[in-house]
Amino acid sequence: MPSAQMDTEKEILSFEELYDRQFDAVNRYLRYRVPDVWDADDLTAAVFIKAMEKFHSFRGEAPVAVWLFRICHNTYVDYMRSRRKTVDISEVAVAADSGSDQPEEAYLHLEELAQLRKQLESIPLDYRDVISLRYMGDLKFRQIAQVLGKTESAVRMIHYRALRLLRSLMDRDRGECSRDG
Amino acid sequence: MTDNKDKVTDIEGWKKAKGEKNDEEGYLPLLLQHMRKVRDTVPVNNVLREELRRELARRSRMAGSAAAGAAETAVEQPRPGAMPRRKWLFSGIVCAAVLIALIFVVLKNSVPMALEAGETRILSRFRADDTVPAPTFDPAGSIMMLTLRGSLLLLDETGGQSEPVIPPPGEKYLCPAWSPDGKQLALARQKEGGSQEIILVSLPADYNWGNLNGILRAALAGAKVLQEIAPGMNVSSLTWSPDGTALAYTAGQRGGGEEVYILETGGKEAKSPGQEKTYSLGPGRHPTWSPDVSALVVQRDYPAPVAGASGPAENKEISRLWLVDRETGRERLLGEGSLPSWGSNGYLAYVDLKLKERVLSYLPDGSPQFTVQQLTGTARAVYLGKKASEVKPPVKSGEAETLLKGGQLLATADTSPGAVELEWMRRLELNGVREPRTLYPGQTNTFEYIGFGPDARWLATCRREGDTVILSRVFVDERPLKGVE
């Protein structure tokens, strides 16, 4: 694979290392955002093939993760543009281990996670971009800002607003649930 | 209910109490924790990670060797005064190359050759539906087309998909076939009401991966109808003759009474005045053309002889391959096999079904404990030649005369133990069974499609695994025969 390059964190990084470090984040990000897991995997392959072809021209102006996620995010945007459909993430099964020994706790965790995923679909697109890059792509705020071409403070603000909106949506749903009950 | 007071929780009440507690402590940390848990609900494809790593390494190697070649060329600049030595060197290289070529030709004619399988690459996986995905390829072999749930799907060499070409409401596209020159596409169209027709689409010379999707959408609207199919009949296995003058296809009711037809599209006139351009080649399915277009190999299915009462679930049908002359209809039995594909290299690939045993667990003494016996398909290849008239007479093998016995193994439709096997093993272990047992699953584990690519450098295969269909490419190479598997 292509020869080693210098990234901004002052370390030698080969494409193999980049692949090993970032595959999970890229694949998870695309699987989270793309409604069809097969398409998500195809897009993952396309991202890394594109990245390998362009790796020699990477000059280290930004962290290599930012550079890769720019490719990844643009690939996703192109894909969604070609589909011209809304994202439906409900197809991906909620299969998390709640980490709790209590069945009630586990049930509630799963229910809340499913509810949260539903809410995530309804928030504005720029909120979703930030949330997915933060939690699926494991990027820092500074890196998200570089991927999306925004300032770091703007990204932090969007993140804060997204969480606040999610909280109010979940509160509203819980309120409705209590009234129904 | 009173007795169970300590065992039953009122989830709504508990939820409410929990909500109040959260409000007191602040909801944001919990939300952040949940966001991290949402992340854990998205699984990563570990198989893809390894396959893609290999693919990237291969591409990198290819790019590296190309770069090295370019560098060598760049270094070799002509120097004044060095010409006479270079001239001698050049002559020597040419002589050596000619000598090597001669040796190769002599060896090739004297040493028996066989097709050997190389790397297998999974191109894509699809959610399975009731139709068999039979891909077709452009002449360069770089663009693949197949139908999925009635829509046309294009894939590039790495399995990357374009947006499906969806037919008008109530219609379906089936069994596309790219002409050998790449300028035409034949396919079946199922109309509203279920009747089918074979249509022909002309493609411009300058199509490529980027613009083909749009071109297809436009071209399909103006497709020419080649053949109306009788109501109730289904078309499958549409395939062009290597010279691009005729199409062969199967038509019939699914599961019986299928016949192979030839549809002459041009270049050749109907055999006599008044005779239809379409004619039947007799019963059979999955036709494949000989490279010289004078004959076809077709598959015919027969009821299997009744097996022993205590034996495993044998196949209920036996498939045999027949060589049928296109002009005279004269037939020759080639042997048992299915899904034939006659490549431009003269090799016939086919699927051979055999009862295979898989050992799931072993006893302490090393002998098999729980095993699965299942009919499993293997893709094999034998050399028939490029001319149907030169196909050797079959040899006697056991009870039947066959040309297909001992074909070189190219691929196996093996799967890893599935949910059924694991559940069976779990039950045996729970019931304390320790002695050897064998499971005979009813279904056959085989390929649904195999076919050579345009230049016969690889074989495309489709097989089912669970609810998915796996489309792969097996690279093949002709080498001196070492031994038959």
UniProtKB/TrEMBL annotation, chain A:
Domain RNA polymerase sigma-70 region: 19-85
Domain of life assignment: Bacteria
Pfam families xref list: Sigma70_r2, Sigma70_r4_2
Residue spans crossing the bilayer: none
Keywords for this protein: Sigma factor, Transcription, Transcription regulation
GO MF entries: DNA binding; sigma factor activity
CDD domains attached to this UniProt entry: Sigma70_r4 (cd06171)
InterPro entries: RNA_pol_sigma-70-like, RNA_pol_sigma-70_dom, RNA_pol_sigma70_r2, RNA_pol_sigma70_r4_t2, RNA_pol_sigma_r2, RNA_pol_sigma_r3/r4-like, WH-like_DNA-bd_sf
Signal peptide stretch: none
Family assignment from sequence similarity: Belongs to the sigma-70 factor family. ECF subfamily.
Domain called RNA polymerase sigma factor 70 region 4 type: residue spans: 114-166
Name by which UniProt lists this protein: RNA polymerase ECF-type sigma factor
GO biological process: DNA-templated transcription initiation
From TrEMBL, chain B:
Stated name of the protein: Membrane protein
Family in the record: Belongs to the TolB family.
Domain of life, per lineage: Bacteria
Entry's transmembrane regions: 88-107
Transmembrane helix in keyword set: yes
Keyword terms: Membrane, Transmembrane, Transmembrane helix
Taxonomic classification: Bacteria, Bacillati, Bacillota, Clostridia, Eubacteriales
